[in-house]
Structures are given as C-alpha cells and as structure tokens.
Design brief:
Number of helices: 13
CATH superfamily of the largest domain: Alkaline Phosphatase, subunit A
CATH architecture of the largest domain: 3-Layer(aba) Sandwich
CATH class of the largest domain: Alpha Beta
Largest sheet: 8 strands, mixed
Oligomer: single chain
Bound molecules: zinc ion
Structural class: alpha/beta
CATH topology of the largest domain: Alkaline Phosphatase, subunit A
Length: 462
Amino acid sequence: MKRILIAAFLVLAAAPVAFAQQRPTSPRALPHVLLIGIDTLRGDHLACSGNDWIRTPNIDALAADGVLFTRCFSTAPWTLPSFASIFTGKTPYHHGAVGFDYQRLDDDNYTLTEFFDIAGYRTNGFVSINYLTPEFGMGQGFNGDAPQGLDPDLDRASRITWLGLETLRTHDLNQPLFMFLHYFDVHAPYTPPAPYAGMYYHGDEMAPGEPVLDFLRSDANPARNRNSGMYDWLEGITDLEFGVKEYAAGVTFVDDHVGQLMTHLKDEGLYDGMLIVLVSDHGEHLGDHGYWFTHAEPYQECLHVPLLIKFPKGSFAGTVVEAPISTMDLMPTMLETVGIRPPEMDGRSLLPLCAGQAGSVGSLLVAEQGGSVEGFSKALIDWPWKLMYARTQGIETYRLFDLHADPGETENLATVHEAKARSMRLRMWRIFDPESPLVEGRGAIPADVDEETRKRLEALGY
Ligand SMILES: [Zn+2]
C-alpha cells in the first residue's frame, strides 16, 4: 500500500526553470544522485564558509560548482532525529524518531530513499553508525546494499570511500543510482590518521598541568554520559586546545575523501550529470556554552551545518544562498531536481532560492532535543531571532537570542524584547502540542538493538 501511495507522487512535475529542457522521461534519463553525510561537521569549519585556518579544498571546489547555503540549520543536535529529518523532510516531532522510547523511524514515514527506489533507482547506503541502519528504521527504500553499522575499530572513512567507489565501478550505470555515503570521522574520538593528526596543533598536548579528563569528567562539564568512556581518547592530555585542533584535522581528513570520490566521478565522466549533495547532521560544542567535544543542546554550534548542492549540468554553479534554510528542505529539493513531485512535508524545495527568487516561501526553522517529557528542549528561529525553550525536571526556561548581533548566543533577551519572546512562544506551541511535546500522535517505538550495539553507542556518548 505504501509503495502505491509513493508511486502516486511519481507523476513528473512541471520541472523548475533550470531543468525544463532536461525533464526526465524514463528511468534511464534520471540523473545519478550522491548524498554525502559528514557527521558532526560544524557549518563554520569550511574554508568556503569563511574559516581562514582550515583546509577543505575538495569541499570548496564542490561548492564552487554548485550552491553553497551559508545558513543551513539541522533539526536536532544528534544523529538519529537529524538524519531522519533529512530522509523524511519532517521535523522530529512529526517523524517520531527522537530517542529514548522513540528510537525507531516508523515505517509509515515516506523516505527519500523510497521515492528513489520506486522511481527506478538502485539505492545503496553505506554508513558508519548503527543509528542509520535498518534496526533504527533508516534502511527503508534501500534495494541494493542497505546501510549497516561498521566496526568502529576500522578506518571508517577509507572503508566508506572504498564501498562507494566499488559501487560506482560495478553498478550498471544504465540504471540511475542513488547512493548515500555517511562519514563519521569528524565525530569524537578525534583521532585522524597521519598526516592529518596534529596538522593544526603546534603546542605540547601533554605538558605538565591539569589532565583535561579530570575536568571533563567533573560536574563542571554539563555533558550527559561524561563518564561513559566518551572521553577516554584524551587520556594524558593537558590542553583542551588539542581536541579543538584535532577536530579540525578530522575535517580536512574527510575532505580528502570527498576529493577521492570527486576525482573518480570526473575521471569516469559522471560528475557533470550528477546531483551531488553534501550535508551534516549537526555540529559540535568545542567549548561553546560550557560543553566540550560533544553535541548536546540546540545552540547554533550544533545546529549550523554545511549544505552544498551540485546540480546536474552546472545549474546554479557558484551561487551562494544566505537565506536561512533547514536540512528538512533537502528531500523536496532533491526530488524536484530529478523531476519527482514532492508530497506535502515540513521542508520546502530550495530550487526557487537557487534560482534567485527572493521572497519564496520560507523554511520552517525548528530544532528539538530530548525524548523524555522530563527533559527536552526546542528551538525556533525567525531570523535573526531564536527562541530556546527547555524543560528540565518540570522547570521551564525560555531564552531569546539575536543571532545577528550575538551569534554566540550569550545574552538572553527574553525580558528585554518581551513582546517578541511572547509571539515566538505562541508560534512554538502552535507547532508542537504543549501537552504532548515530543512526538505527534505516536506510541513508543523502541529499536530492537543488541547489547553490543548499545555499548558501542554509549561509548560514543549516546
Ligand atoms: Zn551525528
């Protein structure tokens, strides 16, 4: 039944302006699609986004050939709900995979992969963490290699790149290919291989002094699971800056893998005709708001992520879009690009913005954290204003920030701009039901995970 409903959307839409001449007429004419998800990559850690000390030449080159979105925000500060939003075009509140008892993406969601599957694509996914596997409901629509969690002791990026290149080498390219490659090497523990390790750090990380582990495992660090082993990689380190710089080294390491993929696509003559998307699911606290080397709260360092879209045939190449948009907008954008009419969802197609049509319908900019009614937070952005609401053991707090004047979110303006705070509060509770704020109309759907998977995720800080 679900397949029939999805098939009903496969009436090829009146193609947007830039694609009018290349509207697909058969599966053979559909462009190949590559979705690269780089876990935990902050939006401000790319040279093309203005960072003047990190080297990301391959991602920068991809941005130059496509559209760079400088204000893209994720829907959650952690992996499962955020990627579930990318794959459904919905808020976590609507797709229901928010954590705790709501750990699984319910099969009644229509996923991006399912649309590609029914449109005739071969759909392959290679991921580096169990949250993106079928046991968490994220395998829906993969008709080739379904995403499986890998052994975290392996060199993950090398493995993902190898699997991706092997698929490109062996797949019959007469059939359109949708491939999702997920890199986890920017995520803690920050342990990039040589020659990347230490490339940005020039101090002595083990100089005499207070071990950073003593601090990170103390109550001074508000992170959850701070004693779970998530900081073991900092044994013997005395300089927090070492972690900050090794995080960046991981970014450059993964950038090199993006380069390997692009080189292959160009060598094989595939690059020009492909739709290539690069996005992250969330950023990282690097000391911001008192959090270190984790992603816990929907502050901007966790919500602001890179988004680059290289369209087929060089459409919109070199465009920079500064309008605030959401990772939820990816699904309708990708579907519309290949000529599939997107169904109604929370996300909005970005094609009008790419074409320079100012005043197009704005994105819904919300983010959520927490799967328990005892402790959760919500964020609503109405640029440049951001309202953050938190409920912790029955205590409610509202904070209002001006992201333009105060991008670090240091000054709560909720009492100074009381009317603005009130109107955004009302808007927030029109989006979420204050009586049932976690998920809309769903029962708990826990994932069926084994003990080893659970321990592996705990060691990563989940
Ligand atoms: Zn993640």
